[in-house]
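Tutorial, part two.
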Amino acid sequence: QVQLVESGGGLVQPGGSLRLSCAASGFTLDYYAIGWFRQAPGKEREGVLCISSTGSSTYYAESVNGRFTSSRDNAQNTVYLQMNSLKPEDTAVYYCARREGSYCLRAVRGYNYWGQGTQVTVSS
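Running the prediction step on this input gives:
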């Protein structure tokens, strides 16, 4: 069955970096867009960015543009989220998700399969 597993979260100081991984199984990653989302305590889940099947990224959270990038290794069935210059406001549970299609959508409801999430905490 389709499964997504995030890893790489943790505690980091402001200005630091983390790389999250989203390991996919049960399907061939090549044909699908993968979205990255985050949810902070007391807030709604929001789109961060999405990487299409061709590797192009679309940013949904303006605050991460220029700091976060996503890449994909289809041979390893893994998508990555590189997060640099982290800020306390980036603290959240981060999720990867797959939709039924090769292009990106912003809406949470546009994605069918979700990982369990990984906690990212930015604090000194």
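The first strand starts at residue 3 and ends at 7. In part three we will examine how such features are distributed along the chain.
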